[in-house]
Amino acid sequence: MGAFSAADTQAFLLTLRLAATVTLLLLAIGMPIAWWLAHSRSWPSRVAGAVVALPLVLPPTVLGFYLLLLLGPNGWIGKMMASMHLDTLPFTFKGLVVASMLYSLPFVVQPLQGTFEAIGRRSLEVASTLGAGPLDRFLSVIVPMSWPGIVAAAVLGFAHTIGEFGVVMMIGGNRPGETRVMSIAIYDHFEAGEFAQANTLALSLVVVSFAALLAMYLLRRKAKA
Amino acid sequence: MGAFSAADTQAFLLTLRLAATVTLLLLAIGMPIAWWLAHSRSWPSRVAGAVVALPLVLPPTVLGFYLLLLLGPNGWIGKMMASMHLDTLPFTFKGLVVASMLYSLPFVVQPLQGTFEAIGRRSLEVASTLGAGPLDRFLSVIVPMSWPGIVAAAVLGFAHTIGEFGVVMMIGGNRPGETRVMSIAIYDHFEAGEFAQANTLALSLVVVSFAALLAMYLLRRKAKA
Amino acid sequence: MSAANDGLRAALSIRRGALSLDLDIALPAHGVTVLFGASGSGKTSCLRAIAGLEHSPGTVTFKDACWQDDARGLFVPTYQRRVGYVFQESSLFDHLTVAGNLDYGFRRAGRPSSIDAARWIDDFGVRPLLARRVAALSGGERQRVAIVRALMANPRLLLLDEPLSALDGSAKTRLLAELERLRTTLPIPLIYVSHSVEEVARLADHLVLLDGGRVVAQGPLQQTLARIDLPCALIETLGSVVEGKVSALHRNDNLMELAFAGGTLCLPHAEETVGQTLRCRIDARDVVIARDRATASSALNQIHCEVVAVIAADHPAQCLVQLDAHGTRLLARITWHSWHALGLAPGDAVWAQVKAVALGS
Amino acid sequence: MSAANDGLRAALSIRRGALSLDLDIALPAHGVTVLFGASGSGKTSCLRAIAGLEHSPGTVTFKDACWQDDARGLFVPTYQRRVGYVFQESSLFDHLTVAGNLDYGFRRAGRPSSIDAARWIDDFGVRPLLARRVAALSGGERQRVAIVRALMANPRLLLLDEPLSALDGSAKTRLLAELERLRTTLPIPLIYVSHSVEEVARLADHLVLLDGGRVVAQGPLQQTLARIDLPCALIETLGSVVEGKVSALHRNDNLMELAFAGGTLCLPHAEETVGQTLRCRIDARDVVIARDRATASSALNQIHCEVVAVIAADHPAQCLVQLDAHGTRLLARITWHSWHALGLAPGDAVWAQVKAVALGS
Amino acid sequence: QTKISVAAAADLHGVLDRIIETYNSEHPGVQIDVVYGSSGNLTTQIEQGAPFDVFFSADSDFPERLVRNGKAVGKPLQYAEGHIVLWSASMDLKGVTVQQLTQPRFTRIAIANPAHAPYGKRSEQALRAAGVWDAVQPKIVMGENIAQTAQFIRSGNAQIGFVAESFARSPEAKGSYVVVPTSMYQPLKQSFVLTQHGANAALAKDFMAYVQGSKARAVFVQYGFYVPEIAAPVH
Ligand SMILES: Nc1ncnc2c1ncn2[C@@H]1O[C@H](COP(=O)(O)OP(=O)(O)OP(=O)(O)O)[C@@H](O)[C@H]1O
Ligand SMILES: Nc1ncnc2c1ncn2[C@@H]1O[C@H](COP(=O)(O)OP(=O)(O)OP(=O)(O)O)[C@@H](O)[C@H]1O
Ligand code: MOO
Ligand SMILES: [Mg+2]
Ligand SMILES: [Mg+2]
């Protein structure tokens, strides 16, 4: 087994940071979106549902391709950012955050929407009669009742971000400490024929991930029991 | 806009075939697994839950790496298959099916599990007293009641397979008609500087996918109403 | 019906599937209003519209507040109306313990010191359940918790949708007594949905009768009961209610006397005190009519009445006899056979015999 | 309790939270067994164990089949037991219409021609609801659908958990009459959970009394009711039941006479025919005791009895007097005041007066 | 046999397609599929059993690794020599040297991944030779292979970068380029080899012979490669 180099450690930590950032941001924006999608039957909400789901069916390479064109100095978002004296997003951590959020959005919204749909109106009605306003109901009824769904959403979002490869490949530029995430690092080792190092890195990811997942599963079951 | 070449059409159809195959197989094996995970509180089921979720947190490159080592001519499954005079799986369509199933499994199991958990025991008890055996209950109660979850699972599984890039990159070998899926074809066009063709292909995928998604969303809302 | 009303006034046009109910009710600011009607008559729909859980076109005002006025596009959401609601079917939060359920509304009401939560918890027998998960409660236990939860939310108006239907006899009796006590101690109005006559008699100050998608009668209890234009089935189920003052206690026999205009009733005594106003329902079938005063009978109460009217009862063998005891209406259900055998006719003077025990519980 | 039993035999040890119920019951293969007990006494738990929805240690056999025998590791799953179950709370499938709900069990039973589904659908008033979604039903409507659904599944044993508690008076009366008819026409045994005395009297052939986590009494209705070792509250709620034969009809008055060992009762007549065996419950509070035969009274029935015993009733003002009318036990609840005023003592000959209307519905 | 599969280094995008086109016109009915990638990636795939018949590498090291591992037969043959250039799609690079890459106007410098793309390795050599390797580290963005690297530059996301000369000289290429002196890096001895999988493929051998023929060499030159006088075994 190869050594766990400083560069690999850096990739490991960067990946966790990216996944955590993206997950938190996605939960924050995903919950209201999911609630809306779950309970509105209006036309806009249906179309929005399809739009939110779109990244699901887009290969990461397509997404990365368009992001590179759009966010780059010749793309209109890139031009806009340049005119505001902001760095363009490709090849930066922020760029990965934006791309991963787009990419993982449906993975967070879908399970949330599923649980939200399963919560009957009655519980919300009861909460209303007990004086709980909309936000209060959301926090005191919906969130605790849809806990399994929220956990699932967080895990899916986190995981999907950790696993992201195609988009990062397209717009990351493999910059250590900035955009060289685990999936890229492992791929690099592999391509360079450094199987031992690839193995070390992959295995460490497997072990850490499995431990985290197992803990989560045990906790989740506890909470249910 | 570039032309839609025969090779691109081939990649398009191959991708749909792969995603459909994988989704159907995953629904078939995912439902019993999800049910078990949703309703058993035994230790094995908790560990199994974590194992099923593992591909979630594994970068596709890690998965591809280990699959290649395992299924390749030097891996023990590869050797086993060779001794049975079977082709080894990497670089074949079957190999992609196996890899994508592994990779997409949690995306199918998680939403199923979520809906299954939301179905109360009462409905199943009622069905029992009306003479429905386990399989019958599954088909006549669980499936219709968890329809939104099943649709979500199918869409997630299908989409995740369509979008798969890293694993295919590692074990696909980019063989036309066999393993050159859309995500790879688009990447190739992109690398070759064939922006127009990349764009055509990507856009066609977006249009088709969006139409499918939208139809699904509209149908789903209809079913609910 | 006056537009200036200091209680609840609701003019709503409720349409739900087959149901088409035009509601126009004005309820007093105090006491218990019972919504009485058959299954499917729209009682629940009505409560939901008042609570703001359903938006049916119309207007709703409560005391000084306007809750709904479609003409002005006004619709106050439920959580701002501060209505307590006990649902017909159990509606506890599964994700909370019993204590968590109780505290839910209590906390949001600011845990006011004016609320004697501990007492309700004891009175309704909820204390031993506090730590339980909701899934581990029996049907009756759930309902008790739901009532206490609604009370603890410090509502301005309490809506109860058949809160006792899930309870057994003794629990019902106990809860009913508890609700009766609430009725006199709670400073807020209650709207109580029921199809139990006993509950109507014991609790109602005001009665709203729903039938066939409309309000067939509404008003103070006594007045509503005295109406003879109501369907006989309704009259019959309602019976009669005597209200009087406790005039004497016979502690040895655990009896007390209730004096009213028409005479004195002797009935079982519990904790009542002399001078207390009391209400007592007399089921029409518990009244025996006799020409003469009986002697040596366990029927303790004999009231001199005049026969007012007779109408056919639901069963062809029977009739309903309206009696007047110095202004208090009594209702007796007897067989036509007896009516003829006794040779009764309106205007006759008779004795109405009622057992003391029939008046008790 | 004989081990060879052609009905249901269950010996179970049910533990659920605070509940600890050791059940050992043997029920006949025909007729209605009522499980009677207060809220929380374990009635639902008991039905669930019989249906196989809960696995409590013990044995359960039904007719020739062994459903559960833990010693042999045998546990037949619910769906193979063919028990119909009407749950205490509504339990319809939300994803099906009313018609879909009804057909669910019917189809699985092979839509047997022996089942007259159309009749039940009409009798229980379900026909107008067939196309409805379940969410659009009122509480009472739901319960009726649930009952018909259970019947249509062609069960070998029907379990009903307080099926009428969600219904209002008139719907309850109608359904009860319907269930009474079922009782005589259905070839399968029913186990009926209730805490309504009326339901017990009308439906029970066999009674199982649950109290404080144990079976306090079980057996055929009459025998069980005659026991004086039961808690007085129980005796009192149960009242007495007279069973006799219709001996004469008075069509003019819509009355009929019921002859039994102790005499004749006159009661309202509906569709009964002469010679028919009939059962009639007499509430203890409806019985007046008099030393002399009354004249000119609307209390039609006067039965000559002997005072057997007197025990204190629940209320301190009252007592329960057991009377014997040539072998039929009657129960009267009167005040101690009357007991003393009439100078009653066991062995005295008295007249029990009961209004015909008290015996009617 | 009418079909073979070729793995080719990413710098051969364009040129190899052209050669196959001409080969096809002379041999109708045959089909040659090409898969492009970094030489390292393709080598690893072949080692793992990828069914390629011929491997066109961007250097000679990777084919030799395959021969050593028994995954290729015969000796690797050089078919062209590759050079690197500095290329920009938006800037005028006249007079720009590798040393000047430290200037702040170059915010992003694209190179191929030196770990498995030979062109990347040469770019690193040049930067080291200029003594600016460490200084430009923060500006470096890496493509997975040389073709992707070219994309970073072509789309403007990197102002400048090292690519194969063939990319900068292709007719569609915009912008300007400067040649990196061959003294600063080892020119690429681009070699190909017959794989174990293709060992018995007559079509593969025929195609390899064609690539060494004069027509093919003319195409290489036309696309900006350098062709040795004689296609002799390397070393
Ligand atoms: N969503 C709906 N769609 C169609 N019909 C409905 C809907 N909700 C209620 N109804 C019908 O409206 C009528 C009144 O219902 P509601 O629940 O108000 O009756 P209720 O008086 O409370 O009856 P119960 O005593 O049985 O609870 C019923 O006939 C019911 O079938
Ligand atoms: N899962 C559980 N955990 C703990 N206690 C339970 C559980 N289920 C039921 N109980 C308790 O067991 C007792 C009996 O419950 P059960 O539902 O059988 O009563 P019941 O006789 O049907 O009452 P009701 O007439 O109110 O429906 C109750 O005290 C209840 O609190
Ligand atoms: O093998 Mo390459 O052409 O340097 O990517
Ligand atoms: Mg209702
Ligand atoms: Mg129960």
TrEMBL record, chains A, B:
Q: How does it sit in the membrane?
A: Multi-pass membrane protein
Main localization is membrane
Source superkingdom: Bacteria
List residues traversing the bilayer: 12-38, 50-71, 147-172, 201-219
Described by its record, this protein's role is as follows:
Part of the binding-protein-dependent transport system for molybdenum; probably responsible for the translocation of the substrate across the membrane.
User: What family is this?
Assistant: Belongs to the binding-protein-dependent transport system permease family. CysTW subfamily.
The record's PANTHER family line, in alphabetical order, gives: MOLYBDENUM TRANSPORT SYSTEM PERMEASE, MOLYBDENUM TRANSPORT SYSTEM PERMEASE PROTEIN MODB
Q: What name has this protein been given in UniProt?
A: Molybdenum transport system permease
UniProtKB/TrEMBL annotation, chains C, D:
Which Gene Ontology terms of cellular component type are present?
membrane
Renumbered to this chain, the signal peptide range is none
- Cite the PROSITE patterns for this sequence: ABC_TRANSPORTER_1, ABC_TRANSPORTER_2, MOP
Domain Mop span(s) in chain numbering: 296-361
Q: Output the superkingdom of the source species.
A: Bacteria
**Annotated Pfam families:** ABC_tran, TOBE
For this entry, the protein name equals Molybdate ABC transporter, ATP-binding protein
Give the organism, scientific name: Solilutibacter silvestris
